[in-house]
Every structure is written in structure tokens, then in C-alpha cells.
From TrEMBL:
This is Malate/lactate/ureidoglycolate dehydrogenase, LDH2 family. Gene3D superfamilies: 1.10.1530.10, Hypothetical oxidoreductase yiak, domain 2 (3.30.1370.60). It comes from Bosea lupini. Pfam families: Ldh_2. It comes from the Bacteria. SUPFAM superfamilies: L-sulfolactate dehydrogenase-like (SSF89733). Belongs to the LDH2/MDH2 oxidoreductase family.
Length: 338
């Protein structure tokens, strides 16, 4: 078995934050990024864990992200709140906008948070989970950069466009799912390449549009949407709602801006929040109690709820620490010394 090092959540967060401070990020952004990356490792979500640090630093070095723009919240009292991220990483903008979004959804029943001009590399579950903890159901989505062929197509056009949903549950973790609308996140392809493993069939096309299981060819070619035409249509919807509609870049625009897929993409994000109490007002049954019946029925068939694996991994990490491989620790050491 390869050697591992165990770090507490706090120690890992501090190490990542130090790397980002050294890399030039302001304290606000270094802290926000370190927390979300450490949370990925804590929850066993490797595709958006420590391995993302290097890509963030490359993006900073390339001058493609603001290191210190302070996000600003624009609130005209309507259901649509806007955060201008100013070309910085998205997380600080989300942290600024989330409490206002939850509050507005409780007031109106439904509200939206638009984040414009943000560099976004992170998983979306931390966002919908935060909102569910604030008592609202939430749906988050964003483009990425053009790396996915539409179903029936041959070349990259759509992004891996993640979609995440959270539903609050009393006395327990919320119901949360979060997935790329490609067969897998691009980070998974990169992790297969690093491990020297072939991809499963049906994940990708090479640069001539032919099916491939070689991760290097897949990275140069195109990934495929999940569920064929269904994933392709959901991904297109995300381009429309979280790109075109909010006046921000589509995945193709993000790729044109960057000129490469080796840096973190800049675009916008759309987060919708719903107050289940407001929607169910005057109707029979408590929506949270009815949701529990649904969750019990799913589990009753032996199926697991999405995020159940993640919450279990979190429990383990918080009790026993987070295990990093020698390669991951070596990477942090190297980046810290640079
Ligand atoms: P996965 O396929 O690993 O997981 C998708 C979801 O399905 C998770 O909520 C997972 O829960 C759940 N799930 C998996 N297996 C089962 C099962 N057997 N029964 C019930 N639920 C299950 O995710 P992806 O590879 O598609 O995406 C990984 C991450 O990449 C996401 O967090 C996404 O936000 C991020 N991403 C970010 C992008 C960006 O531009 N910022 C772009 C694309 C992806 P669990 O975790 O508990 O297994
Ligand atoms: O894993 O597909 C991905 C991804 C793209 C941008 C950030 N993550």
C-alpha cells in the first residue's frame, strides 16, 4: 500500500491557504478557496480536491483571474440578486451572496443569485448544502469550458456543466446531489491519466471524433454527455440559463477567453433558491415531512441517497483525519516551497 499522511481538516485548510497566499491571492480568496478544496478532500471528492491547487496557481500566473477583487452584491429588492465577482474566484462571491439569497427566497418563495465574471473550478455541492443548511431548497448550475460534444456530434462545444440540488432535512444532512452533465467530471479524466488507467467505454471521443478509452486522447478530443440526448439537452439548458440568460460567457466563450483547458474557466453561475414552506402554503401536508416519506421509500428499496457516501467519508475524516497520498503531500510541499 502506498504511504499516506493524515492531516486534520484545519491543518489541511491552513496548508492550502498558505500556498494560495504565497501564490498571490488576497486573504479573503485564499481562505475561501482553501476551505472548499479541503472540504473536497474531507468528503472524498478527489476530482475537486488538492489536485486543483496547481491549476488555480497556473491560472493566477497566467493573469487570467483577479487575485484580490472584492465581490460586490447588487440588490434592487427584486427576486434576482447579483454578485459581481470582478474576475476573481467564485467562492468569495458565493459566500457574500448566499445569506441574502436564502433570506429573499424565504420572503418571496423563490429567488435567484447570479454571480457574474467569476473563475469557477469548484464542486457545487458545498453551495447547495450551505443553502439547505439555511433552510431553503437550491438548484445551482454553471457552464465550464467547451470540452463536451453534444449527443450525436463529434467535437467539443458544451462544458461539463455541473448541476446540483439541495433539500433541507431536519436533524440530519440535507438531500444533495451534484454531478457534471458529462459522463464524468473532467477532473476524473485527468485523474485516470495520472494513474495510467484507461477510461470506461462511452466516456469520450478522440480529436477525430472516434470513441476512445485513452485519457490523453480524450483530453485532446471531447468528452460525452451523460444519458446521451438527455444529458446533452440539460447541458444546453445550463449554457442558456447560466451563460446566455445572465449575460455571461458560454462554455465556448470561456474556452475562447482562456485559449486552453489547463486553466480554471471564467464565466458566470446561476443559483435558484426555493422556500418549500412558501410553495406548500395552504396545501395539505408539511413538505419536509412528505419529503422524508420519499427518502424512506428510496432507502427502503436498498437504494442509497446521493451524498450518503460523501457524508460518510466526512464523518471518517472528521474522526480520523484526512488521508493524503505521498504524491499529494509532495505536491503541496513543492508548491509551498516555490
Ligand atoms: P459523480 O458521478 O461522482 O457523483 C454524482 C452524484 O451522484 C453525487 O451526488 C453522488 O453522491 C451521487 N451518486 C453517485 N453514485 C450514486 C449511487 N449509486 N446512488 C445514489 N447517488 C449516487 O459526480 P461527477 O463526476 O459527475 O461530478 C463530480 C464533481 O465535479 C461535482 O461535485 C461537480 O460539481 C464537479 N464539477 C464542477 C465543474 C465546474 O465547472 N465547477 C464542472 C463539472 C463538474 P456521492 O458523492 O455520495 O457519491
Ligand atoms: O471537472 O469538469 C470538471 C471541471 C471543469 C471545471 C472545473 N471542474
Amino acid at each position: 500500500m502506498s504511504e499516506t499522511t493524515i492531516l486534520s481538516m484545519e491543518a489541511l485548510t491552513r496548508r492550502i491557504e498558505a500556498v494560495f497566499r504565497k501564490g498571490g491571492l488576497s486573504p479573503q480568496h485564499a481562505s475561501a478557496l482553501a476551505r472548499v478544496i479541503a472540504a473536497g478532500e474531507r468528503d472524498g471528492c478527489k476530482s475537486h480536491g488538492v489536485f486543483r491547487v496547481e491549476g488555480c496557481l497556473r491560472t493566477i500566473k497566467a493573469g487570467k483571474v483577479s487575485t484580490d477583487a472584492e465581490p460586490t452584491l447588487h440588490d434592487d429588492g427584486s427576486a434576482v440578486l447579483r454578485v459581481a465577482a470582478g474576475g476573481a474566484f467564485s467562492r468569495a462571491g458565493f459566500e457574500l451572496g448566499a445569506p441574502a439569497l436564502a433570506e429573499r427566497a424565504k420572503q418571496l418563495g423563490l429567488a435567484a443569485l447570479v454571480i457574474n465574471d467569476c473563475t469557477h473550478f469548484s464542486a457545487l455541492w458545498p453551495e447547495v448544502e450551505t443553502l439547505a443548511d439555511m433552510g431553503v431548497a437550491a438548484l445551482a448550475m454553471c457552464p465550464s469550458y467547451a470540452t463536451v460534444a453534444p449527443a450525436g456530434g463529434t467535437a467539443a462545444l458544451l462544458g461539463t456543466n455541473p448541476l446540483a440540488f439541495g433539500w433541507p432535512r431536519q436533524g440530519g444532512h440535507p438531500y444533495v446531489f451534484d454531478f457534471a452533465t458529462s459522463v464524468a467530471a473532467r477532473g476524473e479524466i485527468e485523474l485516470h491519466r495520472r494513474a495510467g488507467n484507461p477510461l470506461p467505454e462511452g466516456w469520450a471521443l478522440d480529436s477525430s471524433g472516434q470513441p476512445t478509452t485513452d485519457p490523453t486522447e480524450a483530453l485532446a478530443g471531447a468528452m460525452l454527455p451523460f444519458g446521451s440526448h438527455k444529458g446533452s439537452a440539460i447541458s444546453t439548458m445550463i449554457e442558456l440559463l447560466a451563460g446566455v440568460m445572465i449575460g455571461d460567457l458560454t462554455s465556448q466563450g470561456a474556452l475562447d477567453f482562456l485559449g486552453t483547458t489547463t486553466l480554471a474557466p471564467q464565466h458566470g453561475e446561476l443559483i435558484l433558491a426555493f422556500s418549500p414552506e412558501r410553495f406548500a402554503a395552504g396545501r395539505p401536508g408539511d413538505p419536509f415531512a412528505r419529503a422524508e416519506i420519499m427518502f424512506e421509500a428510496i432507502a427502503g428499496q436498498g437504494a442509497r441517497l446521493p451524498s450518503q457516501r460523501r457524508f460518510k467519508a466526512r464523518e471518517g475524516s472528521l474522526a480520523d483525519g484526512i488521508a493524503l497520498t505521498a504524491a499529494e503531500i509532495g505536491q503541496l510541499d513543492r508548491l509551498e516551497a516555490q
